[in-house]
Structure prediction request, 210 residues.
Amino acid sequence: HKNTGILNLMRQRIVDYIKNMGIPEEEALELRKKYFTDYGLALRGLLKHHDIDPLEYDRQVDGGLPLDDILKPDTELRNMLTSLTSVRKWIFTNAYYPHAERCIKLLGIDDQFEGMTFADYRVPNFDCKPETASYERAMKDAGVSDPKMCYLVDDSAANVDAAKSLGWTAVHVTYDIPSNHGNYQIKSIHDLPKILPELWKETSSPSPSS
Prediction:
């Protein structure tokens, strides 16, 4: 949830990383915003325009976040996922896998997913949401060929719009912010069964990938 403050902490760590490259703070702030807007992730802009080690960046930025002090087990989320048995559950994230693994373990849901599609910092010119290639890679990773069998639940309007344009069922987690993005909008991830109750019904038909 955005109220955890993790996003702001991450943004500040990115700015600090850019400052440590010898770039003044005001310029570092602008570069972080520009690279995120232009490339989906600030890291991709840094890789394109600067000589940096992406894994060292990950250690300093994502890896340096005090997640243990912020994230706690989410029993309601775990129960919701445990009862979601009619679909395959898959993580689709713009994070590198160590950060994603830390998050799901701290939330107590690391045993709820069949697999993960992540932004692979080790790959030159790696793709990420909302690029079409990233969604295609997620489908390939999950072994799904029909986009109509895919659901995306995301708090990024851009990511949700991209999923919907590709034929996925897209759900925008809005945190009370007005939104008309995606097929559905919910204020909290815990509200998902309210808008897609059919997914919580037992089915004998082929399972879609969520």
